[in-house]
Amino acid sequence: MAKGRRSDFVPRSAQPMGLQPDLLERIKKIQQDMAATQAALENELINVTAAGGAITIVISGHQRVQSIKIDPALIDPNDVSMLEDALVAAINEAILASQEHSARRMQEVTGDFQLPGLF
User: What three-state secondary structure class fits 76?
Assistant: First the structure.
């Protein structure tokens, strides 16, 4: 240790710009909680029904389709394009529901947290 220097001295250039220690701890906690929530979202499943209940899609919080169930009454071999359109619409609804679920879960973690001076 250099003569006359305190052992807890941190050069100004090594300190984050004006962030107080309690704020840094809060940021670290939010980062840890966000990582845990991201991991949990992989196993959180959302059920979405579409086409008047004729299609049910189960999707994860990571937007991974787990299953699709189709009411046999919706299957008309003479109108395949109608089934295709219904599936596209149902999958898009499921993705949107999963994204909204994930955004809500992340909002629970971050709350109204904002870094001063950034917004």
Answer: coil
